[in-house]
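Why should sequence recovery work at all? Because a backbone constrains its sequence more than one might expect. Tight turns favour small or flexible residues, buried strands favour hydrophobic ones, and helices have their own preferences. The token representation captures these environments compactly. In the example below, the structure is given first.
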């Protein structure tokens, strides 16, 4: 039988990822606004930053889905005297949540790698 606290213990780490991703979203929005005010010389950089913004929007959406799945998994697993079908459902939500989280982390890795290239292109202008 799966313990209810297993998926719940992962939530604080996901919350930190959501917080840092939100901060990235705010910073990139600010950078795009600043680049827009500086004129057309930064149009290519601005387009690259918009791509980053879209990528981060996907990440934060995936992290929200992860929180939902892990919370449902913990809730279902906490029900006393659950049948084998509900226990399997709790495991399915756990695996789905972790899979979506791993996808979000892969997107964040791509974001970080491309962020360096964008910064280099920005500094060359």
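From this structural description, the recovered sequence reads:
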């Amino acid at each position: 039988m799966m313990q209810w606290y297993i998926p719940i213990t992962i939530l604080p780490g996901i919350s930190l990822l959501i917080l840092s991703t939100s901060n990235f979203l705010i910073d990139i929005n600010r950078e795009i606004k600043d680049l827009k005010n500086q004129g057309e010389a930064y149009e290519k950089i601005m387009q690259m930053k918009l791509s980053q913004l879209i990528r981060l929007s996907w990440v934060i959406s995936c992290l929200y889905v992860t929180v939902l799945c892990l919370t449902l998994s913990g809730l279902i697993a906490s029900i006393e005297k659950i049948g084998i079908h509900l226990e399997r459902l709790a495991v399915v939500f756990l695996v789905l949540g972790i899979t979506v989280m791993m996808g979000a982390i892969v997107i964040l890795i791509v974001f970080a790698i491309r962020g360096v290239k964008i910064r280099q292109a920005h500094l060359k202008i």
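A few observations help interpret the result. DSSP finds three helices and no strands in the chain.
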